[in-house]
Amino acid sequence: MIGIVDYGLGNVKAFANIYHKANMRFVIARGPADLRDVDRVILPGVGAFDQAMGRLTASGMRAPLEELVLGKRAPVIGVCVGLQILMRSSEEGTSPGLGWIDGDVVRFQRPADDAQLRIPHMGWNDVDARNGSALFAGVGADAHFYFLHSYYVRCEREEDVLATTNYSRNFACAVQRGNIFGVQFHPEKSHQFGVRLLKNFGEL
Amino acid sequence: MLRPRVIPCLLVKDKGLVKTVGFKDPKYVGDPINAVRIFNEKEVDELMVVEIDATSNGREPDYALIENLASECRMPLCYGGGIRTAAQVERIIALGVEKVALSSALFENPDVVREAGSQVGGQSIVAVLDVRKTKSGYEVFTHNGSKPTGQDPVAMVRKLEQMGAGEIVLNSIDKDGHMKGYDLDLIAQVRAATGLPFTCLGGAGSLEHMSQLVERYGAIGVAAGSLFVFKGVFRAVLINYPNKPAKESIFKAGRAGTGG
User: Fold this and answer.
1) Which of chain B's termini has less CB crowding within 10 Å, N or C?
2) CATH code of the domain containing B74
3) How many angstroms separate the Cα of A59 from the Cα of each of A53, A63, B176?
4) Which residues of chain B make contact with A148, given a CB cutoff of 8 A?
5) Which pairs from B202-208 meet CB under 8 Å and 24+ separation?
6) Best to test chain B binding among A7, A11, A94, A166 (most B CBs inside 10 Å)
7) Catalytic status, residue B130
8) Which domain holds residue B103?
9) pLDDT tens figures, B48-71
10) A117 contact residues in B (CB cutoff 8 A)
């Protein structure tokens, strides 16, 4: 069963609606007890880095999630700031991240040759996914997703980068290390492209 | 490449959907949840909903309505109206809204931008500037256009970017509901003063009006009210939105891709 982690950040109901329509079993997890039958995890996120780490810790779900993801190797996907907290640290805050993926989170900088670059990166943009990725299966080369962020992740290992997006520079918009996934965009708000990706995750 | 955003802006008053002209004469045009369902089917880029009587009536935001809207919306939602504190912003984001729009609070409690930003992230804090042309130039108004702030929109957007806002929505009170086109001079002045994502509202009466902006500015936000709720010269109520080819034709005009 898919566990949608509700730690007070992000649109839990939007994920629930998508899985409800797709007839896939899910639970909205508000505490450790709700994770009992969960075999894959969604970490949603609309928020600041420290706020996200603080909320996750306060929810009491951090230890059972680590057991699920690092112990039992259950698939997990972090979304937006839910992706960013998978890394070790962020320029946005001082809290350490979960550190499940090696790398950090940095702020977009306006390059000297692109004074027009608007920050945050906001809106629908293309996603260039690595061939053969199960997460992006059937999503299509013309797919675009909704982004809303001022910070992006930098993976230490090139092999952990699952997809890139260009916004003045190429950045990792999706990552994967084994059973651990993350996307910078909001699949729950990206129409049929996002629905496809979330179904794929449910079927991994 | 980053695309321009074509955004319906819905106004709510007494729990019903309305549309104004020059911020006056709200006409009832339907039920907000029903409109969201139609916009879902049309796969809109983003949706903005503003409760226009919350601040004027000194009311809290309608959390029940926000929760219903957020769980119904399959596209990103920006919500505004009656928001004064960081605690309110946090509560609304937790209900599943992606962005929160502030207007009068920017003047009455400017610290709210930084405070709320540190909790929900600056990317989700939208500053809405309702602007009217006065004898001495452009001026920002609040409380549904009834209260002058004495602030020049150009100076204000500079300040807002430093305060950590994530987006500017520039709304022309004079052009609102007239469907004769955006205030291009106002947009040119204010947009040049900020590096934040930028969305224009007020005056759009056709997709050509949107193309004009996209042609000039690339991936800008082009928002409209009347255009997406009325059809024809008699302003019959009909929720509508350009289909994919029609929208592509707006986009074809401009291909900058560095954000609007």
Assistant:
1) N
2) 3.20.20.70
3) 10, 10, 45
4) 76, 98-99, 123-124
5) B202/B170, B202/B171, B202/B172, B202/B173, B202/B174, B202/B175, B202/B176, B203/B172, B203/B175, B203/B176, B203/B178, B203/B179, B204/B179, B205/B178, B205/B179, B205/B180, B205/B181, B206/B179, B207/B242, B207/B246, B207/B249, B207/B250
6) A11
7) yes
8) 5-252
9) 999 999 988 888 999 999 999 998
10) 195, 258-259
- ipTM given for this complex: 0.94
Is A123–B75 a contact, with Cβ atoms under 8 angstroms apart? no
Within 13 Å and on the Cβ side, how many CA atoms surround B215? 10
Residues of B with CB under 8 A from a CB of A: 1-5, 43, 45-46, 70-71, 73-76, 93-94, 96-99, 117-124, 166-167, 195-198, 219, 221, 256, 258-260
User: For residues B122 and B168, what is the distance between their CA atoms, to the nearest angstrom?
Assistant: 12
pLDDT in tens, B158-216: 999 999 999 999 999 999 999 999 999 999 999 999 999 999 999 999 999 999 999 99
CB-based burial label for A84 (10 Å; 0-12, 13-18, 19+): buried
* Cβ pair B120:A121 closer than 8 A: no
| B257 falls within a domain | no
Q: Please name each of the domains of chain A with its CATH number.
A: 2-202 (3.40.50.880)
CA B109 to chain CA centroid, Å, is 20
For chains A and B, CB pairs below 8 A equal 125
User: Is residue A110's pLDDT more than 80?
Assistant: yes
What CA–CA distances, in Å, run from B225 to B50, B120, B207? 11, 27, 12
Cβ of A189 within 8 Å of Cβ of B123? The answer is: no
- The β-bridge partners of B9 are B48
* Min Cα–Cα distance to chain B from A100, Å: 22
Q: Got the DSSP string for B5-39? A: EEEEEEEEETTEEEEEETTEEEEEEE-HHHHHHHH
Distance of alpha carbon A181 from alpha carbon A161, whole angstroms: 10
Structurally, chain B folds into a number of domains equal to: 1
